[in-house]
Amino acid sequence: MQTLCGTLLQATAPAECRVTDEAIVRIGEDGKFAGVSAGPAPRGAVGGPGRWILPGFIDAHLHLPHWDRRGIDGLGLFDFLEKIVWPAEARMADPDVAERIAEAFVSGMIAHGTTTVAAFGSPFPQATQRVFEVFERRGLRAIHGMMLNDTECPPGLDQEADASLEDSRQLAARWHGAAGGRLQYAFSPRTPLMCSSRQMRGAAALAGMFGCHIQTHAAESLIGVERVRERFPEALDEIEVFAEMGLLTGRTLLGHGVHLNQHQRRQVAAAGTTVIHCPKANLFLQTGLMDYVAHRDSGVRVALGSGIGGGFDPFMPRVAVDALQTAKAVKVHGLPRGTSPVPTVAEAWWLLTRGAAEALGLADRVGLIAPGMEADCLVVRPEPWIADLEPSCRPSALLYSLRPDQIEHVYIAGRRVGP
C-alpha cells in the first residue's frame, strides 16, 4: 500500500472542480486507488504540506516521430509536412532510431505529467513494434498505431494497401489490450489525401473487428479541405468521406477539426466521434482557430492534444490555457460576436483529465482519483501563494501557473514512473 497526501484537485464534471485540503490517497498493490479520505498526513506518506495531488494529464493527439522536431517555425501545414514531417518519419525505418526516439518521448511525457497518450506512429511495422515495447517497459498508458498512407507520399514512406493492413492487423493482435489493458492499438490512416479508399475501408473493418480506436486528421486547414473535395468530388465533404469509408465511429479520434461547419459538427456528434482540439498546433501552423464552444454546443465530444510536432509545447495545462484563450478570441473577434459562455477553468481541468478519459473510452479506468480506478496521478509542488487564495480561485491559479519542474512524482497504474 502506498499513501499520498496533499491538496486534492479533480474535475468530476465540466462545471465542477473539487478541491480537498489535507487529502489522503491510498494506492493498493493492484495499482488501483484503494481509498480517498481527509485528515492529518500519516507517517511515511508521499507529499505533505504544499503538495497537490492531481489526476494524470491526457494528451489525445500527437506524433511520436516528431518529438524532437518541435518548435520549427515559419512553415505552413503542407510545407511543414514536406520539410519536417517526412524526414522525421523516414528515419524511423531504422528500428534502433525508433526505439531511441520512443525512449526520449516517454521521458518527455512523464516529465510533463502526461500519463496517457493517443499518439501516431510511423509507417513502419518494425518501428511500431519497438515503440510498443518501450511503452510496455516504461509504463506509459498509450493508444498508438502504425501510420497508414499509401498515396501522395515520398518514396520509402508510401505503403502497399494490403501489406500495410496486414502489418496493422498483426500489430493489433499483439498489442491491443496488452499490459493489462494499459496499451491499446489505433488504426491510423493519416488523412483521406494520403490514403486510398481500399486502405481506409480496410482500416475501418479491422478496427471494428478488434474493437480498436481509429485516429486520423479532419478539417485541419482550408487548403486541406479543398484538396479532399477535389480528390473525392462525389462526396459532399470530408466528413462524408469518413462516413462512407466506415471511419466515422464512436471510437474515432479526429485531429484538429478546425474548419468543421455546423452540419458536420452535428454529423460527428451523432456518430459519437471525438474531435481532438489542438489549439497550440493550430496557431503555430496558422491553420485557424477552432470554435470549441460551437463543437461543445453541438454535442461533439472533445479532448485536448498537444499536436506535437506542429504543436511545440507538451505541457498539457498550457494547452488547456490556450484552449481557453482561443475560445475567448473566437468570441470577441467572431462575426457576429458569440453569446455562448466560453469554457471555464473547471472545464479546462475536466478536458485535461476526466473529460479526455471519457472521450477516449477510458472512463472506467482513469481520469478520476476514486476507489477502484487505476492509479494514474501526479504529486506537484506549486507556488505556495496559491494555498492562500480563496478556494474558488485556486484551480485557476494552479492551471495558469503550474510548471513541469514542479512535478515531484508521477504514477501510472500505481507504479511510480518518474519524473
Summarize the structure.
This protein has 419 residues and is α/β, with parallel strands linked by helices.
Describe the overall structure.
The protein has helices at residues 77-90, 95-111, 125-138, 161-175, 197-210, 222-231, 238-245, 262-271, 279-284, 292-297, 316-333, 345-352, 354-359, 394-401, and strands spanning 2-13, 16-27, 33-38, 46-55, 57-63, 114-120, 141-145, 147-148, 183-189, 213-218, 252-256, 274-277, 301-304, 377-380, 407-412, 415-418. It has 419 residues and is of the alpha/beta class. Strands 5, 6, 7, 8, 9, 10, 11, 12 and 13 form a nine-stranded parallel beta sheet that branches. A seven-stranded mixed beta sheet has the order 3-2-1-4-14-15-16. β2 and β3 (33-38) form a beta hairpin. 52% of the residues are buried. The mean pLDDT is 96.
